[in-house]
């Protein structure tokens, strides 16, 4: 059974708190079972030989591992798409979100369509944000962590949200023994260096370095550009797909003509293809389920990865 649950998420920490280390526990406070053992009794008789009901049986015991993903920022635009894609593939999804006291059924209509049995723990809790989260509770039973944390603001805010918050999450996941960490980062734009030195980009690259350092053979970094889809902001739906979809198709159709321009400084702002939020989400699902999927993935590679699991 697939499920989505949700916790509280992120706020500004004191400047003295930059990293965290957490001990893991073997017991889980959640009512899910992730390693299921079942037995199968089989009997065999050759052709033409009457089967003896008293003959010996073969006991087959198998360990079945189910995936459970923790999505940081799971109530946001990209995070909610990842939760939705996970549930559609039978993966349990846990959302750690900064929205508090709001039922996810009011934020995302797709959860209502799945029914209550598929989505337990829909209300936000007071477990704390990324810097103060009870990681023993949040990460219990998880097989992967996905971070969609990021945002704009002052230099300090962008360094904290894009960089420090992700570093704390990577450290917590590694210390807890989570085998895979997936980071939603940003496209490697060919912008002038003074723009790339802003807190948004330096924070993202700091987070990338932490993932690659702690998860060298299982960490995944997705670098999309402009992500489009239907985005809800303060109760209003912004149809970014009306811009992103046609622009993506136009750039694909004119790729042979625009490719020579890609070497011009700043050209990526216009020529980097948009990516649908569903492609990003399904690329994450590919990363969760494929142990050979790790490293840094560009816009085109994200689309290719999504196509492998999209049906």
UniProtKB/TrEMBL annotation:
All residue ranges annotated as the NAD-dependent epimerase/dehydratase domain in the record: 69-236
Gene3D superfamilies linked: NAD(P)-binding Rossmann-like Domain
Annotated Pfam families: Epimerase (PF01370)
Gene Ontology molecular function: protein-containing complex binding
Cellular compartments per GO CC: mitochondrion
Superkingdom classification of source: Eukaryota
Xref: PANTHER family: NADH-UBIQUINONE OXIDOREDUCTASE 39 KDA SUBUNIT-RELATED, OS04G0403500 PROTEIN
Protein name: NAD-dependent epimerase/dehydratase domain-containing protein
Organism for this UniProt entry: Camellia sinensis (Tea plant)
């Amino acid at each position: 059974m697939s499920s989505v649950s949700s916790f509280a998420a992120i706020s500004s920490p004191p400047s003295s708190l930059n990293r965290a280390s957490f001990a893991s526990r073997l017991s889980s406070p959640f009512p899910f079972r992730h390693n299921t053992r079942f037995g199968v009794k089989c009997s065999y008789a050759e052709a033409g030989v009457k089967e003896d009901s008293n003959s010996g049986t073969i006991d087959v015991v198998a360990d079945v591992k189910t995936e459970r993903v923790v999505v940081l920022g799971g109530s946001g635009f990209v995070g909610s798409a990842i939760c939705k894609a996970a549930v559609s593939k039978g993966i349990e999804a846990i959302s750690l979100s900064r929205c508090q006291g709001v039922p996810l059924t009011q934020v995302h209509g797709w959860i209502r369509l799945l029914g209550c049995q598929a989505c337990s723990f829909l209300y936000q809790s007071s477990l704390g944000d990324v810097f103060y989260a009870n990681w023993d509770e949040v990460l219990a039973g998880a097989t992967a962590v996905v971070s969609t944390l990021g945002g704009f603001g002052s230099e300090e805010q962008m360094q904290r949200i894009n960089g420090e918050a992700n570093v704390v999450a990577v450290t917590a996941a590694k210390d807890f023994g989570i085998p895979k960490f997936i980071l939603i980062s940003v496209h490697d734009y060919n912008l002038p260096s003074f723009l790339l030195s802003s807190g948004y980009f330096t924070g993202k690259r700091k987070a990338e370095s932490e993932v690659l350092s702690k998860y060298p053979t299982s960490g995944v970094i997705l670098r999309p550009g402009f992500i489009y889809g239907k985005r809800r902001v303060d109760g209003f739906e912004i149809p970014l797909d009306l811009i992103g979809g046609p622009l993506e198709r136009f750039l694909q159709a004119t790729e042979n003509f625009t490719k020579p321009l890609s070497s011009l400084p700043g050209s990526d702002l216009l020529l980097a293809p948009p990516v649908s939020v569903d492609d990003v989400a399904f690329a994450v699902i590919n990363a969760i389920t494929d142990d050979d999927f790790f490293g840094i993935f560009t816009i085109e590679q994200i689309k290719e990865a999504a196509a492998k699991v999209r049906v």
